[in-house]
Structure formats: C-alpha cells, structure tokens
C-alpha cells in the first residue's frame, strides 16, 4: 500500500482516544479490585466479568501505547503491541459471549450446575483460541504496520500481507460479527424468560408484584439486559464500518469523525463495563461509596487528632455484616 493511502491520526484524536484508554484501564481495574476486596460479591458471573476485565485491561494498555506512538513502519515494538492487542481484544469478545451463555443457561435453563461446569471450557476457549490465533499470526509474520487502515495508530495485521483481509477476519472481525448476532439473541431470550416468570409470579403473588423494591430490581435488570448488547454493538460497530469501507476501497474510512469513533469504541469497553456493573449496580456502588467515605472520615479523624495532640479514638462504623448483598442488577 502506498504511503499516500495512510490514514492520518490527528493530535486531538490521539488525546480523545488516550483518555478513553485511561478510563477503560481504571474501569477494568476497579472491577478487579472490587471483586478481590469483597468476598460476598464474588458470584460466578462477576468472576467471568473479572476475566473479561483482565483482557480489557491489556487492550487498554496496548492500544494506548500504539495511539501514543502512532507507528509508521514495521518494528519490534509495533509487532509486540499488535500481538498483545490482538490477543486481548479477541479474548474480550469470547468472554463477552461466555458471560451471555452462562446467564442464559443459569436463568433460562435453570441449571446452575451445568452453567458452572462450563467455566473451565470458557477459559480454554476464551484464552486458548485467541492465543493460538495470535501465535499463528506471529509465526507467519502477519502482524505489523497497517497504515491505520482498520486501526487508529496502533499495529494489527500487516497491510503488506497479501491475505491481510483473511487474517483481519481471523484475528478479530469474524468473532466481532458473531458477537453482534449471538449477544442480542441470548439477551433477548433471557429478557423474555424473566418477563414470563415475573408475569407468572405476579398472578399468584400480587403483594410481591406490587412491591416498589421488586419492581425496581426487575426494571434495573431489564434495562441492563437491553443495554449490554446495545452498548457492545455501539462501541464496536465503527471498526466494522471502517473494515467494510476498506474492503470496498472507500476514502470514507479516513473520515476523522469515523476514525475517532473507532478509536474510542475499541478502547472504551472496560469503562463501559465499570459503569454498568460497578457504578450502576447498587450493592457494589453502596459498598464502594461506604469504603471511600470511611477512608475519608478516618483521614479527617487522624488530622483532627494530630491538631488536638490527643489519642485517635476510632469510631465504630455501622455493621454491614448483617446485610447479605446480592449482586443484583
């Protein structure tokens, strides 16, 4: 490909995408930390979310390096960055679908035993397949500089490879397209099952059905089941659009707005997960707020004690041990 066809990445695009990478890094880290420090919130779906967050964390780091450097040729650091982002990004696709499959079997099929038995297979597929594809691409020298044709400064599949379209499909696009189909179908089936179950419960237990708390929890779960596939598709669709435009050799793939949306969409997944599953999940949000408030109060008491030259008398925080927080959406 001639150098003149290279997609230019402007400074403002770099800044926006680097901010997105930072937010995704922090969001993924927060998901992992909250899982570690609060044992009673360690449900299996949240454990799967942690594994996906590890992949999103790697993606954010590798993409930020590529966006910051803006590669313009094949080099060792370009290949390393491209390999890490290829592995992490593909793994994130698999973990996203794995969570949907787990919830479908657990909720619709009402079989926690079967759902839990799949976790080992989720690991084998979600780590093993991306690793195998990435190693094969490395061994065959398919990863390298791609002139930002379907990236935003970072390296992916070398544009010089004659079969680069095939390897773009294998290292990401085919799994992305499958996720576009599988996620809406699985979450629609889950939503339909929940609505039927809630309708049957309402018929026989009208008091519970009219409870504000019951309606609130059901409404929040319904919104999340709707938003998960919508947010995934909204974030990822821009890279798919640029891939299609590249296939038809359209100059529209270099449009700065489209390039920026592609960069943010590819790097914001960790932040989006944090918003949905930490900030918008009441048990985790309340725990996090209490933790931050307690730390702030402890620092304030310590400062006051030093000013008064007196002993720091600890106050007894409210005992939350009697509340068994469930990871409800």
CATH architecture: Up-down Bundle
Q: Level of helix content?
A: over 70%
Q: CATH H level: which superfamily?
A: Rhodopsin 7-helix transmembrane proteins
Structural class: mainly alpha
Morphology: globular
Strand order of the largest sheet: 1-2
Number of H- or I-type helical stretches: 11
Q: Can you tell me the residue ranges where pLDDT is under 50 for at least 5 consecutive residues?
A: 207-214, 309-329
Number of individual domains: 1
Largest sheet: 2 strands, antiparallel
Would you report the number of β strands? 2
**Radius of gyration, rounded?**
23 Å
CATH domain fold name? Rhopdopsin 7-helix transmembrane proteins
Mean pLDDT, to the nearest integer, reads 84
- Ends apart, CA distance between termini: 49 Å
Supply the CATH class: Mainly Alpha
Order of helices and strands: HHHHHEEHHHHHH
- How much beta, percentage-wise? under 5%
Subcellular location: Membrane
Keywords: Membrane, Receptor, Transmembrane, Transmembrane helix
Membrane topology: Multi-pass membrane protein
Region (Disordered): 302-329
């Amino acid at each position: 490909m001639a150098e003149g066809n290279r997609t230019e990445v402007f400074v403002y695009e770099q800044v926006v995408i680097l901010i997105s990478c930072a937010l995704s890094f922090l969001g993924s880290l927060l998901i992992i930390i909250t899982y570690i420090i609060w044992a009673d919130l360690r449900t299996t779906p949240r454990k799967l979310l942690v594994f996906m967050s590890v992949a999103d964390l790697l993606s954010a780091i590798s993409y930020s390096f590529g966006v910051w450097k803006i590669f313009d040729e094949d080099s060792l650091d370009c290949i390393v960055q491209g390999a890490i982002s290829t592995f992490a990004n593909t793994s994130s696709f698999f973990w996203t679908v794995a969570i949907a499959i787990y919830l479908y079997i657990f909720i619709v099929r009402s079989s926690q035993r079967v759902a839990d038995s799949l976790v080992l297979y989720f690991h084998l597929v979600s780590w093993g397949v991306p690793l195998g594809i990435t190693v094969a691409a490395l061994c065959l020298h398919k990863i390298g500089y791609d002139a930002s044709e379907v990236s935003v400064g970072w390296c992916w599949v070398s544009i010089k490879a004659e079969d680069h379209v095939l390897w773009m499909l294998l290292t990401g696009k085919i799994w992305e397209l499958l996720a576009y189909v599988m996620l809406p179908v699985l979450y629609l089936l889950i939503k339909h099952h929940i609505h039927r179950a809630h309708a049957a419960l309402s018929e026989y237990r009208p008091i519970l059905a009219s409870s504000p708390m019951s309606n609130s929890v059901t409404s929040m779960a319904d919104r999340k089941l709707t938003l998960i596939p919508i947010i995934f598709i909204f974030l990822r669709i821009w890279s798919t659009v640029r891939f299609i435009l590249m296939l038809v050799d359209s100059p529209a793939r270099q449009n700065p707005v489209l390039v920026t949306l592609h960069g943010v969409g590819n790097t914001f997944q960790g932040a989006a997960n944090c918003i949905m599953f930490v900030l918008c999940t009441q048990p985790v949000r309340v725990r996090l707020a209490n933790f931050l408030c307690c730390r702030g109060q402890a620092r304030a008491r310590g400062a006051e004690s030093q000013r008064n030259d007196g002993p720091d008398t600890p106050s007894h925080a409210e005992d939350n041990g009697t509340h068994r927080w469930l990871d409800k959406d």
